[in-house]
Amino acid sequence: MTTISKNTRRDFLRNLGGTLCAGGASAFLPQLNLIGSALAASSSPGAFTDYRALVCIYLAGGNDSWNMLMPQDATRHAVYAAARSGVYNATTNAAGLAIDLPQLTASQITDSATGKFYALNPGNPGDTDVHRGMLDLRTLYNAGHVAFLPNIGTLIRPITKTEYNSTPALRPPQLYSHNDQENLWQLGQTTESGQGWGGKVADRVRLDNVNQGLSPCISIAGSNRFQVGASTFPYQMSSGGVSALQGVYNNAGSTGGTYGAQRAAALDQLLGDSSSSLLQSEYASVFKRSRDLYDLLSTALAANTLTTVFPANNSLADQLKMVARMIKLSRNSAGTVAHKRQIFYVRFGGFDLHDGLMSTGNGGQAILLQRVSQAMSAFYTALGEIGAGVQNEVTSFTMSEFARTLASNGNGSDHAWGSVQMVMGGAVNGGRLYGTFPDQTLNNAISFSRGQTIPSTSVDQMGATLARWMGVTDSVQLNTIFPNLTNFATNNLGFMQP
Amino acid sequence: MNRLLSMRALALCLTCAVVPSLQARIYDTINRSNFDPLPATDVVASDADAARFLTQATFGPTRAEITRLRSLGYSLWIDQQLSAPPTLARPFMDAVNTALVAGGQTIGHNQRLDRWFYTAAYAPDQLRQRMAFALSQIFVISDQNGTLSGEPIQVTEYWDMLARDAFINYRTLLGDVTYNPSMGKYLSHFRNRKAATGREPDENYAREVMQLFSIGLIERNLNFSPLLNAGQPIATYDQNVITNYAKLFTGFNYSDATTIFNGTNTYLAMTCIATEHDVTLKTVLDGMTIAAGQTCAQDVSDGLNIITAHPNVAPFISRQLIQRFVGSNPSANYIQRVAQKFQNNGSGERGDLGAVIKAILTDSEARGAPTATSGKLREPLLRLTAMWRAFDAQVPPTSAFGEIKMGLTNPTGTYGQRPLGAATVFNFYEPDYQQPGPIENAQLYSPEMQIINESTTFAIANNLYNYSWNSYIGMTTPPTDRPLLDLTSLTSLATPTAMVDEANLRMMYGSMSSNMRTTMINMLTFMTGASTVEKARSLIYIVAISPEAAMQR
Q1: What percent of chain B lies above the pLDDT cut of 90?
Q2: Is A361 on the interface with B (CB under 8 A)?
């Protein structure tokens, strides 16, 4: 089988050119027909001397973020509690979705921009564990490493409630639908596209990555639109890393038994056969890419372990641990990968809590958010283990298709719109909120009857701020990645240090 | 009987009508070495044609089924399958549970999955079970949800309901799905209450029953193309319709409940508690209204009738069923032909799912020669079941509790699929998924590709390895928790060429390309000194993981 040698950027470009001239296809870069435009738009080679990575933490199902970040002063908490059908009590108010004010003391935070008090999800009542609820993230917030975007969502342009009611064309398409809104969050635009903003950023910042055989976009959570660009397609691995293919020769350490070489030769021949069917060709191409990268990653991962303890029984922690190991091996400029810019994607589900939002069990939101908090905190610690300054090189952020109705449906909440999202990293200007926390009165000027909130900040603004930090500083490029960006007041929300 | 006869007559008409387009397609087709032109009769022209049909219609062709299909012809074979009684799983689960409880144990989803694999591998009602699998990927519930993770028997009953209803009228199926308590729990209309102070009805089922189970988000023509207004698609409903349908789906509880809170946990269809049902007027799809003051049953019936009557249902459901059985990218005409059968089965009935599946499988596009865009990636789990069936896998022993272990209790981890166990209501993959790159650039769809990546290609291959290489009759210390392949059909053959040709028929319905055939013959030839068993195992494994066998065309 072929193995990937450590290519220089020059080799990459030359090889691309050759492939383009030949009109052939590469297993490494499945979208070569589009590479020309991507190269034209790319950053200058040699632009990046440092390492930087984004980690997208997708909270699937629509996180009810109104119970992730709550106003903690008595006045606004009362508004919040009223909108949420009162404080939850399993026996006296099972329909209530609000968390009681006294319970929020331990998880209180202060917005350093306004001086107002908020609280993070405090975990289950009665739990005294120091890592309960989102206390770990509170610690990072207080250290200035976490910021919140308090009412962010999909938008074509800023929209008033009057405009919403009078002009349907101004609404983002298919509001309230899981898969459609997830797509809009990931695409960075409100019209159909196969490409996401992470992939489009990667197209523009990948040229200083030495080993171009490994995509700058790495998913630990399967396929997604976010990481697809014109010349970038995510490499997809599992949180367990890579495993050898059984029964065939992989490398000197994994020979596939007697006749493993014959079987490998046949398989590799079949993976290289052309087909008139694009489905079959694509299957072969993905399989071949897996063969090609196995050797590189199995060796590199074995040499890049971590001692930081990640929480057990936490699939997000498992994924983030693999991200940390990939960062450790990738940022080493003397290593076999030697990347300068990477974008990771992980995913954690279970948030579609039409039922059981306040459950204290493993399916309830408190435990889900506790897992998010503990996993992100362990990840931040692991970055510190990798080396001094690495925490400043990696910025993690959450996305989720929508927040949910403030009003209760009896024991949960339904699909809504504007939401709260988090950004975490040493390069984050943390300890504060960016944007206006919404008035939570039901059916006010920025919300509808069940407390579906109209966003005041666009996904595109968050994405552009992160893209700029990754090195896409040119406004023209930002406006290309996010076609609606010019409709908003600023393309830099200010939550990232330069 | 009348219905069967008229359906048969219709099938003949259909064949007549498609002859011109079929001929046009044949002229366009090159490099066809393995298929004869489709005869304008019901005759199955070759073993390879039979195996191809059975790859579409069953969990994998067997030699015995190939023979039976060839003697019956397509139409009679389908008719027999349409009337074959369902192989039920819930009574089996009940019996095993009784035995387990007597032994101080309890049943779980592991037993449900074992039973599913057993049925897929061995049940006679193959088309019915395949249809249930297809329907389970449209009308999704999942044991990954906390409400169902502890309810293996109830979830099994949901499967049996899909199997019983596989060829029934769509409206009946939609009603059974709506009243099923596992669906009620999964999409949370179970114990959904009418509005009161501080509480509005749950919108979950109201949304997904329209977005995923019936009409989808935008208005469509009979051939599935979007209806446009000034160049823009037209939404089928808005949030107000959701809110109104949410009111309609209130009051459901267990069959013996007398309030919204009591009742015995059961798989029986839910009842509706009148005092918790919203009886206000509801304005639903296309401005239609459901009168105030009706009973819950009348409301639900009216509401589901309105959804079912929407013209989107026929193309929306037909296209997804085609994608599950035949191809990811059916032509607009193919969708329209099937949707027409949905609209009218020939006897004036709309929504006859038996007629729909027959139209799908007998269509010229399913039976004609493959083109570059026809076919689909096989669903990963069906690659395993097909391998078992191709090599007449031996049934594993039965445990003291009556269980038959098939070995896979976490198929998601390897195959990305788990029957009634998807990650979300959007199934393992979406019908509109387009793999970025050449597939999307060609404006093609590739649902199964959504779960195929660098990690899963290896995981699937390694599992197929374990279930072939390490699971065959005659091996030293064979595993007892899975079927064992019978290699004799290959080991009895003398030459690499004969072995490859037999594997080609059994695993690839004779569709193996000449390049691949050469590669496989060479592999066996180069295995100097290998035993026939070693060659047979190598051949099965490499064919099973090959790109050509990952496809069905």
Answers
A1: 92
A2: yes
CB contact under 8 Å between A270 and B542, yes or no, is yes
Of B469, B519, B548, the CB nearest to A247: B469
What local confidence, expressed as pLDDT, does residue B4 receive? 35
Residue type, B185: K
- In B77-233, where do the E strands start and end? 228-229, 232-233
Structure tokens that stand for A83 in this block: 């909108």
CB burial of residue B319 (10 Å; 0-12, 13-18, 19+) = buried
**Residue B41 pLDDT class (50, 70, 90 cuts):** low
Give the C-alpha separation, B81 to A423, whole Å. 56
Q: Cβ separation of B439 and A414 shorter than 8 Å?
A: no
Q: Which DSSP state fits A337?
A: S
Confidence check: pLDDT of B286 > 80: yes
Strands (E), B228-375: 228-229, 232-233, 252-253, 271-272, 282-283, 289-290
Q: Where are the alpha helices (DSSP H) in B429-495?
A: 438-441, 454-466, 488-491
CB contact under 8 A, A271 and B547: yes
pLDDT digits (tens, 9 = 90+) for B461-519: 999 999 999 999 999 999 999 999 999 999 999 999 999 999 999 999 999 999 999 99
Q: Where are the beta strands (DSSP E) in A331-409?
A: 341-348, 394-399
- For residue B454, which residues of chain A lie inside 8 Å, CB to CB? 235-237, 286, 289-290, 293
State the Cα–Cα distance between residues A83 and B479, nearest whole angstrom. 59
- Return d(Cα B520, Cα B534) in angstroms, integer: 14
Beta carbons of A362 and B146 less than 8 Å apart: yes
Residue whose C-alpha is closest to residue A190's, from A462, A461, A482: A482
Whole-structure pTM value: 0.91
Q: Is the pLDDT of residue A44 over 90?
A: no
Residue B219 CA to residue B226 CA, distance in Å, equals: 6
**B404-457 residue pLDDT tens:** 999 998 999 999 999 999 999 999 999 999 999 999 999 999 999 999 999 999
Q: Is B309 on the interface with A (CB under 8 A)?
A: no
Q: Is A278 on the interface with B (CB under 8 A)?
A: yes
All residues of chain B having their beta carbon less than 8 Å from the beta carbon of residue A33 are 438, 441
